[in-house]
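User: I'm curious what two different proteins look like when written out as structure tokens. Can you demonstrate?

Assistant: Sure. I'll show them one after the other, since each token string lines up with its own sequence. Here's the first protein:
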Amino acid sequence: MEEKTEMKGTHIPRIGEPAPEFKAVTTQGDINFPGDYKGSWVILFSHPADFTPVCTSEFMTFASMEKDFNDANCKLVGLSVDGLYSHIAWLRTIKEKIEYKGMKDVEVTFPLIEDITMEVATKYGMMMPGESNTKAVRAVFVIDPAGIVRTVIYYPLSLGRNFSELYRIIIALQAADEFKIATPADWQPGDDVIVPTAGSCGTAKDRMDSKDPDIKCYDWFFCTKKLSKEKVLKTILKQV
């Protein structure tokens, strides 16, 4: 019988599982994760290395959008396997010297984890030997207020992230939880949403025969309904 082996660092926490716990030193002080963030959504993300161009563009974008995420009850936590002093020097350089796409004097105020032992990166499967044995790939974990992993995204070292999509995920997950719906492809607040399946909302015939003018059924298994942008944003955002 062939024995299965798992390469170090390739375990990835699954959607629906509790986020692995850790304590770490960051640019904003010590943290106990995810306990310190109970009650908030969190995006925990890794980057390959400080003083690299793709990572610099990403941190400037995240920092510029931090208020948007915070207004949606979402905190940002970064990580790389660099040391604390490297993090501090890099973030200072970003603020003092880098101007990119109209962003300048950008100050990163969310915590950036020091992980020189690779302990956290290993717990979260951020080390991909096929990419690098010494750098974390661009991983993204969306963790809900109860500390449960809700979304996992991995990017290779060469590919910068789409931050509009990361923000959309935060809004869509909260809308799905709050209104008990699902979101279709490319959903944005204000678009129609998916009505729950028959098993959780009456029979298929009930849905097909619904007199609700906001519900439209394409077939027994595929029904949508209107959900206004204003209702979504008023419910989710701290400030509209």
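Here's a second, unrelated protein for contrast:
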Amino acid sequence: MIQNLPPVRGTLTAERPLADLTWMRVGGLAEMLFQPADAEDLAAFLAALDPSVPVFPMGVGSNLIVRDGGIPGVVVRLGRGFNSITIDGGMVTAGAAALDGHVARRAADAGLDLTFLRTIPGSIGGAVRMNAGCYGSYVADVLTSVRVVLRDGTLHDLPAADLHLGYRHSSLPEGAIILAATFAPPAGDPATLAARMDDQLAKRDATQPTKDRTAGSTFRNPAGFSSTGRADDTHELKAWAVIDAAGLRGATLGGAVMNVKHPNFLTNAGGASAADLEDLGELVRKKVYDSQGITLEWEIMRVGLRHAD
């Protein structure tokens, strides 16, 4: 167990189970879970923490598999102190813990178009880190800056250009934890934006297993994307289509299944372990490569130890 942790105003919990904090409902313990009160609390903690102790920032667990052996070191989970949404002069600033859908709705009410965020599961920190996007729009299109805290506890404001946002990728400094992001979205009519989001939600619910225990898209689309993250429709391949072509829709391993409704959604169908889910994903990758010569890359982040010590 980690010794001599710095004092905090937030909450420190030793050996905290993480399964209930992820959408997949699997995974082991955090050696230590830290829920900071605010940015200053987090910065002071990191500045005083032994630099050898690993730190992992965790959002709402929507695109994450925590392995069964848990996560050593400190898991930082941002909560209410980091979910504010402010709108000023056509700019939207959202805390890293603000839910994507909430940000989209608040912006739409103010006549600002962040509608592409409405159907993306998770929070703003993850959306920035992964350059989230759909319906032809991406975080890279509207992001102006991010506020981060580095592993040494220093706070920095970074222009969006410094993140080199690409398809499901950003180049944040090593150890950086996103605290907030500022966007400059285009203007739109609030009623029109609200109607668009309703339509997007209906389409998502019709095509994706939104009621099942998934972590969103399992694999990145394998080809046909520019360096800015925008799809090239003339060459685009869809991960679900190559999985389907390999005959893997509905494939199972233990309690894990490639969802029948949408085969790029790895699903905990009941009683799955993290190992079941990850191993099924690796089996899918192998069979797709063997049958089509296509290498699928994970979009879901897998973290922690395979087995407890």
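A detail about the second structure: Helices lie at 39-48, 100-109, 124-129, 139-142, 190-207, 239-245, 274-292.
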